[in-house]
Amino acid sequence: MSLLRELQEIVGKEWVISGEAATLYSHDAFLLHKGSPSLVVLPGSEEEAIRVVRLLLKRKERFIVRGSGTSLSGASTPLDNELVVSLARLNRVHSVEGFEVEVGPGIANFSVSKSLPTHLFYAPDPSSYQVSSIGGNISHDSGGIRVVKYGPTYNSVLGLRVLLPDGSVEEIRTSPLLNHKSIFVGAEGTLGVILRARLRTFRRPETTKTLAALFDSLDKASRAIVEIFNRGVNPSGLELMDRYSIMAVERSRFRAGIPETEALLLIELEGIPEEIRRDERVVLQVLEELEAEVIVPKDKEEESRLWAARRGAFPAMAYIFPAYITLDCNVLRRDLSEALLKIREIARKHGVYIANVFHAGDGNLHPLIPFDPNNRESMERAVAAGVEVEKVVIELGGVPSGEHGIGIEKVGFMRRYYTEDELKVFRRIKEAFDPDYLMNPCKLVQREDCRPASEVLTKLWEAD
């Protein structure tokens, strides 16, 4: 029996997609490369997902598991006609018990908090939280605005149900002695298929307070970030937007009336009222010393507009430019000023715009580099600038990716950041789980025969 027929018998004809309709799954939010999936299958239950994957493993079919396709590194892009298994239909809330919630991998991040009692919330909140799926968040160890206080997705994962490449299903719980979840969180679907996740939730803070600060230089804004932490304040949110990202937002439907300035810091404090008043005094002192213009939102509506502007910065860029590269390199907070200065120099050198909007609290830079996808020279200049930004960050002691993953975008930087011995360990782990490289091949950990599928990827993969 053909693979198509067998898949249709498992999930139904309407849930197996082929031909032109399958091209909708040819890429994720990483727009530098589009693939060609051989088939797309959408199981509607865990049982169907297990049967589908076991069939593919038995037939030695290479495949990619994806959720809503918001990945920014090409992690769910088929490179060589792989079959795509979408778990978007596995979007149930299975249980809510105390401070724990158990969900399917296809549920949107936003829907997790919506499913909880009003006094609880789920902390990780990437900018795409309204649509990005929990399975993808786990596979990339996503962060978000609250990462500075609550940590990335890893900190909120208590347990996983995972289908392994040998066809077995494992129930994984956190343990003080041996924490198996660390193998799968951030593995980008290369070691197993997440079927269910048990997540930690938190009690909503009694009070929150937002402050906005305008700076006439990125250097002063960067120094403010460092000084806020040096004086003992740990904000629940600390985000930076530069001149270009503010311009993009103010020309889009996300405009919030932000004045023209070199840098905007959005600072959120949370806790009991007296704690917030103490932290606010400290923060205001720092901002005054660095000559910032402080904006205190007059009400919750104004606060919401400012945070919506920050969350809307990525889609706002899409209003102005047809495409852009989104990097997510990480540096220590103390190196933010130097990193941002060098990014400005790189932009001038390559004749491109680079907008910076990022999680300042943990130094997770998100340089956005626009390009024209129909203009090869424009694309090459953007890629060249992106490669140079990544090299500068690594030279500063930073890492290539903070939360978007390696995918196909940053494979070349693995050899720059890790030693060959370390990469051999990664390959040994991959081969221990998936010796035939059937799960998301040529991503994160590559076989020796992996080859770039386009000239653009060649430039990225040879970035070392």
Summarize the structure.
By secondary structure, the chain is an alpha+beta fold. It contains 16 helices and 18 strands. The longest helix is centred in the C-terminal third of the chain and has 20 residues.
Helix proportion: 25-40%
Largest β-sheet summary = 7 strands, antiparallel
- Side by side, the strands of the main sheet go 15-12-14-13-17-18-16
Level-2 CATH architecture of the largest domain: 2-Layer Sandwich
Report the total helices.
16
Low-confidence stretches: none
Cα distance spanning the termini: 45 Å
| Radius of gyration, CA atoms, in whole angstroms | 22 Å
The structural domain count equals 4
Class computed from helices, strands and strand pairing: alpha+beta
Count of extended strands = 18
Write down the overall geometry: globular
What is the mean predicted local confidence, pLDDT? 95
Q: Within the CATH hierarchy, at the fold level, what is the topology of the largest domain?
A: Alpha-Beta Plaits
Q: Can you tell me the CATH class of the largest domain? A: Alpha Beta
Fraction of residues in β-strands: 15-25%
